[in-house]
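Revision sheet: structure tokens.
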Amino acid sequence: MRRLVVIEFITLDGVMQGLGSPDEDRDGGFEHGGWAEPYGDGVLADAAAEGMAGTTAYLFGRRTYDSMAAFWPHLPDTNAMAGHLNATPKYVATRTRTDLTWRNSHVLDGDLPSAVADLLSQGSGTLAVMGSGVLVQDLAAHGLVDGYRLFLHPLLLGTGKRLFRGADRPQRLQLASSTPTTTGVLLLDYSVVRDDAALIR
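Predicted:
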């Protein structure tokens, strides 16, 4: 069985929008794009390499997929991230797209819970979700998330799309590891606690 792990770069106030470049996502008038760039270091690079090594498939929402498909296929496979993304199966939760041109891309067929459950039953390793904030909310609501890998940045933006946008019930997480970087980012690995009786009420 695969594990579904949500991998996100977020600020201390929970913003996940537009981390890569100024024009990555200006939805809602967001003006702080590219905020993650100053925080890269060797610890982050090593963590990314470790995460890729265990990832056997990716799952994206349509908007995140479109953004990534416009960039990563145009980099050479000698770039470790590009090589892994290009070669690894990618599944897209979309009702509007059928023409996925990025190599090894597939439309996720059927309703979300059963389609993701099928993906999780196929093979081993990690089914990784990156970005895709709306999709993450749906996955969490259906109890499909097994863990969160959060790159928590020492930054407050005040505006922007948040990773956690409300839930219909509490969800307890268990900290599996915590690693600081040289730039103040915390790498936090959480596992989802499935026992509802363990929730703090």
